[in-house]
């Protein structure tokens, strides 16, 4: 059916420390992009904050980060927050989070299909009545046409894509499966190096049709790092993060010089995990 | 012991606000933080003054909408407000006149408070008695982007005496983005250099260049502008169908009002 659009779910993984208007914009930009192609329909957006075991410097407790993300998406009718990843006691590879959400969709789909299914006996009776028909009978009560399961794609900025090149941060086999089986939606600003980065990697080049590049024309550099810096200096972050997030940060006194020192000196979980794994030091190309 | 009090400052931003974006409101926040961190000022108010329809800029929608949208955008702010005075004038008003109007209004308010204070000295608040016997007159400063500073260079656009008044009597708080540095612009002008103590340059390190033009363009194409302008403004635009291909064509081919008047102006920055 050429008119059927592929359903897409956008998954954004990250620290969200804190969530900013820029993070939220990524979803809007990706959704518009897919709709404009005429081939896809974005049905859901998922924000999955990383667990505390990630051990990134300045990372505050997952409870706060998840709460802020939920506050930020309260009035969104399609973007939601999932805390499964943040609840795990150990750090999880991004691929595992992708697989988890894809599996969740598959299971939901099977459940829905079972609910719609018609008992087999009825079907048998219909066939008996029309023995000479060779074309498939397209009747309302027949077993449902197999509906394609929504695809989960990883939504990110060019910084994450380019982090594929950081030694020991990603396993090559993970990157391969991410772009091959799932797909990437990468938002970057005009004049970026992303296309060059893809060109220089055999793995990414091979699956470039599954890497969707979206250009952000409105320069929007609201990084969480800058937000935390502004807060430490007593500067306003209004209009850079949703107001409910700003109020929450203020009320709970999050982000200070002390919080920025958390995990100082510790090795980032993926680096720790992959240090002894020969598979991770494989070059991206 | 007399405590040195900070000079109260009111920030005034003039512009189309077509529509008001998160960036417009950021300008106020940045300016306030900057002035506070000098230790010498206390920003007591922010005023957004949308230009009148007679400005004649292409795509400018009715002032009624622009003021309504600004009001919605500023709902959550406890110190910035929109003032429709400029938008209600029959003809386009020079920036210096808008400054004068709001300064006089501020003085009036200040003097009435002062009058009350002197009449009932025992009833004055703790704050009043602490901020010394002679309360400080508020200053009104024009809040703008670096592009505004640039326009001072356009021949015949400004009268020299107006620039002197804007920069000398009132003062400028000029926000520029991370990449650019307007101090050179100031150095290149004798007039601006003279008043550089009254020109506050603020660098915006967190780039957030949400231009209203891009917003309107996105809206016309059915693209999302969520998280770039407040939700309440998005809802208003949808409800009233404010921006359309037709609204973008308004004033097409027309000359901007200040440019129309420039025949009468002397070349301001030929120093």
From TrEMBL, chain A:
The keyword Manganese does not apply. It is found in: Nucleus. Its cofactor is Mg(2+); Zn(2+). InterPro entries: Cyt_trans-like, Euk_NMN_adenylyltrnsfrase, NadD/NMNAT, NMNAT_euk, Rossmann-like_a/b/a_fold. One of its GO terms (cellular component) is nucleus. Residues 11-229 form the Cytidyltransferase-like domain. One of its GO terms (biological process) is NAD+ biosynthetic process. Gene3D superfamilies: HUPs. One of its GO terms (molecular function) is nicotinamide-nucleotide adenylyltransferase activity. Its EC number is 2.7.7.1, 2.7.7.18. Pathway: Cofactor biosynthesis; NAD(+) biosynthesis; deamido-NAD(+) from nicotinate D-ribonucleotide: step 1/1; Cofactor biosynthesis; NAD(+) biosynthesis; NAD(+) from nicotinamide D-ribonucleotide: step 1/1. Keywords: ATP-binding, Magnesium, NAD, Nucleotide-binding, Nucleotidyltransferase, Nucleus, Phosphoprotein, Pyridine nucleotide biosynthesis, Transferase, Zinc. It catalyses: nicotinate beta-D-ribonucleotide + ATP + H(+) = deamido-NAD(+) + diphosphate; beta-nicotinamide D-ribonucleotide + ATP + H(+) = diphosphate + NAD(+). The keyword Amino-acid biosynthesis does not apply. Belongs to the eukaryotic NMN adenylyltransferase family. Homohexamer. Interacts with ADPRT/PARP1. This is Nicotinamide-nucleotide adenylyltransferase. The lineage of its organism: Eukaryota, Metazoa, Chordata, Craniata, Vertebrata.
UniProtKB/TrEMBL annotation, chain B:
GO terms for biological process: NAD+ biosynthetic process. It comes from the Eukaryota. It is found in: Nucleus. The keyword Secreted does not apply. Pathway: Cofactor biosynthesis; NAD(+) biosynthesis; deamido-NAD(+) from nicotinate D-ribonucleotide: step 1/1; Cofactor biosynthesis; NAD(+) biosynthesis; NAD(+) from nicotinamide D-ribonucleotide: step 1/1. Gene3D superfamilies: HUPs (3.40.50.620). InterPro entries: Cyt_trans-like, Euk_NMN_adenylyltrnsfrase, NadD/NMNAT, NMNAT_euk, Rossmann-like_a/b/a_fold. It catalyses: nicotinate beta-D-ribonucleotide + ATP + H(+) = deamido-NAD(+) + diphosphate; beta-nicotinamide D-ribonucleotide + ATP + H(+) = diphosphate + NAD(+). GO terms for cellular component: mitochondrion; nucleus. Its cofactor is Mg(2+); Zn(2+). Residues 12-217 form the Cytidyltransferase-like domain. GO terms for molecular function: ATP binding; nicotinamide-nucleotide adenylyltransferase activity; nicotinate-nucleotide adenylyltransferase activity. Its EC number is 2.7.7.1, 2.7.7.18. Keywords: ATP-binding, Magnesium, NAD, Nucleotide-binding, Nucleotidyltransferase, Nucleus, Phosphoprotein, Pyridine nucleotide biosynthesis, Transferase, Zinc. Belongs to the eukaryotic NMN adenylyltransferase family. Homohexamer. Interacts with ADPRT/PARP1. This is Nicotinamide-nucleotide adenylyltransferase. It comes from Pheucticus melanocephalus (Black-headed grosbeak). The gene is Nmnat3.
